[in-house]
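FAQ

Q: What does a record look like?
A: Structure on top, sequence underneath. For example:
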């Protein structure tokens, strides 16, 4: 993906896109199910600029089967409730060789308190959400 995929950081939209990709807690990951139906799911994520998103999953997450069949995915952040602040990304997803979530500095820094809330401690979360996928983003649209 070209380095200039994100909007110009000198623009208000460009600044907003960067802030939301680094600061938002949840992004919607849409995979395609076996019968061709889009399957959106809210997931925790880390933006690994300039063009990559990292998501950890439970080994039994159906999205892993979807990605194995069709790696094309879409991601989007919630809008502002009035039809604005739209950010939609598209790309290809694949299983990734990454450290466990509790050893990934960016992921742990962003989600440590939530990992404790969900699983009691980050190490336990890593056992439960042990499969990393990376999404190589190829396009972005929005306003």
């Amino acid at each position: 993906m070209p380095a200039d995929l994100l909007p110009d950081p000198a623009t208000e939209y460009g600044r907003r896109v960067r802030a939301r990709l680094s600061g938002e807690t949840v992004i919607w990951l849409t995979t395609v199910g076996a019968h061709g139906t889009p399957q959106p799911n809210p997931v925790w994520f880390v933006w690994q600029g300039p063009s990559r998103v990292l998501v950890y999953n439970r080994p039994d997450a159906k999205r892993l089967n979807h990605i194995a069949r069709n790696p094309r995915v879409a991601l989007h952040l919630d809008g502002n409730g009035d039809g604005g602040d739209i950010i939609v990304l598209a790309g290809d997803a694949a299983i990734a060789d990454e450290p466990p979530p509790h050893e990934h500095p960016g992921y742990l820094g962003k989600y440590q308190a939530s990992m404790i809330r969900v699983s009691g401690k980050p190490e336990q979360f890593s056992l439960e959400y042990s499969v990393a996928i990376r999404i190589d983003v190829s396009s972005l649209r929005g306003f």
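Q: Is there anything notable about this one?
A: The domain at 3-101+130-142 is CATH 2.30.110.10 (Pnp Oxidase; Chain A).
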